[in-house]
Amino acid sequence: MSSIRIENNKLILQADTEVLRTIENKNFFCNELGATFENNSYLFNDTSIQNIEAIESFCKYLGVQVKLDSKASQIKQIEEGERQNFKNIILEATEIKNQTPGSIQVPYMNVEKQLMQYQIIPVKHASKLGFAANFSVPGSGKTWMAYATYFIQKSRGEVDRLLIIGPNSSFKPWETEYYEMTGKYPSPSIRISGSIKERRTLFNSLGEWEIFLVNYHMVWREEEAIAELLQKHKFMIVVDESHHIKNPNGRATRAVLNLSRYAKKRMVLSGTPVPNNFEDIWSQITFLYPNMEILGTYPDFQYNLQRHNPHEYVRESISPLYTRISKSMLDLPEPEVFRMDVPMSDIQKRIYDAIRGHIRESDKIQREDELAVLEWRKFAMIYLLESSTDPSLLTKSSQYREKTIMHEGLPIQNLIDEYSKYEIPNKLKAVQKLAESIMAKEDPVTRNPSKVIIWCSFVASIDKVANMLEKYNPICIHGAIPKDEEEDPEDNREDRIETFKNDPQCNVLIANPASLAESVSLHKWCHDAIYLDRTFNGGHYMQSLERIHRIGMDPHVTTRYHILLSGDSIDQRINDRLEIKKQRMLDILNESDIDEINYDLDFNEFNRENEINDDFASIQDHLNKP
């Protein structure tokens, strides 16, 4: 008798010689299902129920009996059960979405803690559905809702382990939020990281652990070992910041989709599930329902998006499968915003006006290459921002990789080169004075000196501000700082953030928004943010605001943003554009349905190309001033 077994994350069809010869003559498995023929067996990378059923069907057509091993049978039973229950569960989940929240008991949760009212429906929905998406806005407590769902399913005996796949920056919140919810540290948790040797040792002693954390890079490297682990226990898999698997051809995405079949329960979390376009949602939904073909194959999904209104098509296809808490539902207290005009000195003003005039005249030159125009305008806005903040920034390229201003051949280049010898810019002096005044006050909750975060767009500014505030033991974070202990166990962003939170002697954090873009919450420790400068990047600005303004804030605390604007400079135009972008994003975040939102931008992007011309147009009147 022929057999189908699963071994080393591959599906293997084994049969006697005569049967194999018959199959080989048909060429079905190799040509249609992508099998390879080795050691008198057919090997398939696809272990899905669809592939198993295709093999069974073809063998039946040949008159060949096939026996499934325990792993293949388990997959088939689980996935057939999902199909049978799917319609009924969908109806129940839809009813839950339309109910009033009511109350909910969460096992293992500290009796002194409770979910917010708006978190109850998503937890009830996910607990009933078993395979659900939570697309609530950033700062709404998706980690709490995921844990609550896991605790409920664990109490029912449906799962007994939790695998979290996400960016490294999300690991610490998962560990600390467990304590916040239960009053206990998650001692049975482990990060799948380290060298190959360390990972081998780790996988050989995983029986005692309950909570596993793995990043997107490691998940495809250790796909086979993780698949073996998932088959030994009843796992719930949570994909955090799930927009990271938006590319169906990415290695991490393929690994996550393959692993989905071994999980008893599945969940995806993202505040921005469609950061670029609606195609981004396919992998996330397919992970939840790998056997239901909710959105069809990826080519089918792309075709249907073109045939229909994309928003309506996606909403109708997946509406029962996700919940979303909008920004307005959080009911957070309004923060206070202080905009401070800081005049430039005569020297700085002379440099700034010379650059402004040069940009005005240079942009009049006709260019045939549109990409060259975009590149020039991007650099031009960086030059203005640098000169309005600190002209010494112009002497070398920043992380935005712009050419230094010396390539422009300005007659005042020598003044720019020597600027740091003449003065400290007024903006930096204002930042120092403001930060010191904040730290001199008492925090209303901790009764320790207040903490402050200073946002700087340029790494060189971070270093300079740190030197000016050296006696306060500043914590600095930017792209060059290793992200976590996997990159550098001695010094990394994760450890620095923990020091800022917990060390009463370290009360100032200096960072650029790109380096703290996601999964960082500072609202319980810091209530004041100072902006030395800002770019046109609306996504980074919104994310920076949310670092200290989130659910869980003490009701007696006021969040304050202090925005410094150099007088008569690009700063005012950036402020106006960011307010427009902020409102546009808030309109989307306040929608109950998902929508496209360019919210997560790459670190090296000064701005998206389709907005550079609009941003540049917003400074035209400023450039044309005499």
Looking at the structure, what is the overall shape? Answer: globular
State Rg.
28 Å
DSSP summary, beta strand count? 18
What fraction of residues sit in β-strands? 5-15%
Task: Report the structural category.
Answer: alpha/beta
Q: Largest sheet, order of strands side by side?
A: 8-9-7-10-11-6-12
In CATH, the homologous superfamily of the largest domain goes by the name Tandem AAA-ATPase domain
The description of the largest β-sheet is: 7 strands, parallel
CATH architecture of the largest domain: 3-Layer(aba) Sandwich
Stretches where pLDDT is under 50 for at least 5 consecutive residues are 599-607
**Termini distance?**
89 Å
Helix content class: 40-55%
Mean pLDDT: 88
Count of discrete domains = 4
Per DSSP, the total helix count is 25
CATH topology of the largest domain, by name, is Rossmann fold
- Under CATH at level 1, the class of the largest domain stands as Alpha Beta
Structural notes for this entry:
- Helix content is 44%, strand content 13%.
- Helix 5 (117-129) crosses helix 6 (142-155), helix 11 packs parallel to helix 12 (281-288) and helix 16 (370-389) crosses helix 24 (609-617).
- The protein has four domains: 2-68, Translation Initiation Factor Eif1 (2-Layer Sandwich); 77-325, 3-Layer(aba) Sandwich (Rossmann fold), CATH 3.40.50; 345-423, no CATH class; 424-605, 3-Layer(aba) Sandwich (Rossmann fold), CATH 3.40.50.
- The chain is globular and about 90 Å long.
- The strands form three sheets. A seven-stranded parallel beta sheet has the order 8-9-7-10-11-6-12, with helices on both faces.
- With 626 residues, it is α/β, with parallel strands linked by helices.
